[in-house]
Every structure is written in C-alpha cells, then in structure tokens.
Amino acid sequence: GENVEQHPSTLSVQEGDSAVIKCTYSDSASNYFPWYKQELGKGPQLIIDIRSNVGEKKDQRIAVTLNKTAKHFSLHITETQPEDSAVYFCAASNNAGGTSYGKLTFGQGTILTVHP
Amino acid sequence: GAVVSQHPSRVICKSGTSVKIECRSLDFQATTMFWYRQFPKQSLMLMATSNEGSKATYEQGVEKDKFLINHASLTLSTLTVTSAHPEDSSFYICSARSGGRNTGELFFGEGSRLTVL
C-alpha cells in the first residue's frame, strides 16, 4: 500500500517568514495530493490540493509543488501569520477508481508555530 | 461548501459500554464515507470505508466486530464502538465524498473525542 513520509515534524518560524513542509510517497499510482490544516480538537480542513497532471498550484499565500518522478510534493506558505499555527498533514490518494477511490494515506503531520 | 457533521463531538463512557458516533453529509449525498482514528499527537489512520447499502471494508488490524459501521442512507454513516475500553479512547473523524463528484476531494467532519473510563 501507500506510505507517506512527512518532514519536518515541527517547524517554528517568525511572522512574515516562509514555511516549507515536504512529503514523499511510495505508490506511483497515487494521483491526488491534498494538504490539510488541523487545529486543536477539530477535524482537518483542506487548504490546497494538487493532481498528478499539474506540477504546481498556488492559492494566495499557499502553494504546492509536485515532482512525480521523485515522488515528492511540498507545501509552501509565504508571509506566515500567527493564525497559520496549526498541524499540517499531507496525504496521497489514488483516484483512478475502484475500491481505493478517495482513500487517503496521511503523512505524520507537522506542527507549525508562527511567532509574532 | 459541503458540510459533514459528526455527533457527538465529545463522549465519555464507562469501560464495557458501547458508543455510537454519527456522521452526516448535510448538503450532498455520500455514497462513500471513511472513518479515521487519531491518537494524540499522531496522524489520522484509516479504519474503514463505509459504502451505502453494503458492508464496510476494514483496514488491516481493525476489528470489524468491535467497530461496527452502518451506512444505511446516502447521508448517514454510524460507527459503534462496542465494549469500549480505555485503549479505545481516541479522536474519531469521518470524511465523505459524493457519488456524483469525481474530484477526489473529501469533506471531513469535526471529529468525535471518545474517552473511556
């Protein structure tokens, strides 16, 4: 099955700096890579996602890059703000269909702390 | 946007009792729902895939007789933790996708924190 590794486990930055979180995946059939933000005691919220036919996607201060050959993808947050502090999870899924459709394998999570 | 609601958000029970957690898709029909478990400071681990009108598919190592899943309608899946023990204390999260969409995007509930005394 799929295995997703996420680094770093903790990341501390100053407000205004950039933050980068990296993930690698093992299953070359995976074709959907979402990123989630989870605040304490709440469910994960999708912040951005990318599909295997795209190399980069950007949404305001958040961007995700995907390298299919190397099987890794990264989350980039620019101009970080204290409210960006949370746990971030990457995930991978094979959405080609069948019983695995929509099944996400999550990375271990990154605790991001943005200091004012 | 789509909303997935879980109930209860928190539940405390005595060891040996059973607890039911509901997962509802509020504005779309969900042919498939997924149940995850998250221990403190850990990632989400998929427990089972719940398919409307058929038996759930459990991930390896998850006891199907202990974690009963019922997906009787297109908007509701329930997870029942039977004969709960303290080691079952965890954050249970469901997600849902619509049968009519082909985007792969999943919508997550807010989670249900189970504490077994």
How would you describe this protein?
The complex is a heterodimer of chains A (116) and B (117). With 116 residues, chain A is mostly beta strands. Chain A is 0% helix and 53% strand. Chain A has strands spanning 4-7, 10-14, 19-25, 32-38, 45-51, 56-59, 62-67, 72-77, 86-92, 105-106, 110-115. In chain A, a hairpin with a 4-residue loop joins strand 7 and strand 8 (72-77). The model of chain A has no long low-confidence stretch (mean pLDDT 93). In chain B, strand 7 (67-73) and strand 8 (76-81) form a beta hairpin. The termini of chain B are far apart. Chain B has 117 residues and is mainly β. Helix content of chain B is 0%, strand content 51%. In chain B, strands 2, 4, 5, 6, 9, 10 and 11 form a 7-stranded mixed beta sheet that branches. Chain B has a 4-stranded antiparallel beta sheet with strand order 1-3-8-7, with no helix packed on it. The interface between A and B is medium-sized, with 24 and 24 residues.
What layout of secondary structure does this protein have?
The complex is a heterodimer of chains A (116) and B (117).
Chain A (H helix, E strand, L loop, with lengths): L3 E4 L2 E5 L4 E7 L6 E7 L6 E7 L4 E4 L2 E6 L4 E6 L8 E7 L12 E2 L3 E6 L1
Parallel strand pairs in A: 2-11
Antiparallel strand pairs in A: 1-3, 3-8, 4-5, 4-9, 6-7, 7-8, 9-10, 9-11
Chain B lengths: L3 E4 L2 E4 L5 E7 L6 E7 L5 E8 L5 E2 L8 E7 L2 E6 L8 E8 L9 E2 L3 E5 L1
Parallel strand pairs in B: 2-11
Antiparallel strand pairs in B: 1-3, 3-8, 4-5, 4-9, 5-6, 7-8, 9-10, 9-11
Short description:
Chain A has 116 residues and is mostly beta strands. Helices cover 0% and strands 53% of the residues of chain A. In chain A, strands 2, 4, 5, 9, 10 and 11 form a six-stranded mixed beta sheet that branches.
